[in-house]
Amino acid sequence: MARGWGRAGIWAAMALGLAACGGPGPRDQAELDALTPEQIYVQGESLLEQGQEEDAAFYFSEVERLYPYSDWAKRGLIMAAFAYHRDRQYEDARAAAQRYLDFFPADEDAAYAQYLLALSFYDQIDDVGRDQGLTFQALQALRTVIEVYPDSPYAADAVAKFDLAFDHLAAKEMEIGRYYLSRGHYTAALNRFRIVVEDYQVTRHTPEALHRLVEGYLSLGLDAEAQTAGAILGANYQATDWYRDSYALLTGRGLRPVPVGDNWLSAIYRQVIRGEWI
Hints:
By secondary structure, this protein is an all-alpha fold. The chain has helices at residues 2-21, 29-33, 37-49, 53-66, 71-86, 90-103, 110-122, 133-148, 155-182, 186-199, 206-219, 223-237, 241-251, 264-273. Helix 4 packs antiparallel against helix 5, helix 5 packs parallel to helix 7 and helix 9 (155-182) runs antiparallel to helix 10 (186-199).
């Protein structure tokens, strides 16, 4: 017992000493080679506590590089992914997390590695104007967390972030659709709003998309489609301002928000009536 406590005390003293010096420690290869994996790992931990994520990631990565078959290598690799992510070096975070999953897919930290992988995409999609490739990749990675690790402590947060990322894609379609609509490019705008109604119907953007369909179809003189879009809006979102605005547009032209004709919106309306909307 005393022997074990003594060893722990040595590592604790080493960590305190490193913290006191405030520097990144040795990066000379010969000096690193002389350290045990535990010593290198402790240096990484100390640097991480000091907020020096880039240096911490370096040491965690060195543990895995110099001692690839040790238990410390697993710890170092997952901590490297964490340090890179905290430093917003997302590509490096993804690489480390993916490497962990490749080498230790059944390990207890595999769920966390997948979660970090997803976050490295998700944390870059906050601007709706950016390319949506990252959003699709975030959705795919989050889905893996949800489906492969449903009992992990990260699954619930992955579900919440998946819904937000999904909503983000719908927001992008709406942004483009509004742009086209404002410039009178009605067909292009309608195509975008249709995507929201068909593919993103569980997002918060669906009521507006239906209203914009009413606007666009009325502008093109396609009264049947406009009326049917209004009927769907009324059946699902009657209490919204979007429905009130659509109702005013339709009745102002002597039309009613009722299903008319046989078009793609009519098929959706029939689904709504049968309770198969979602």
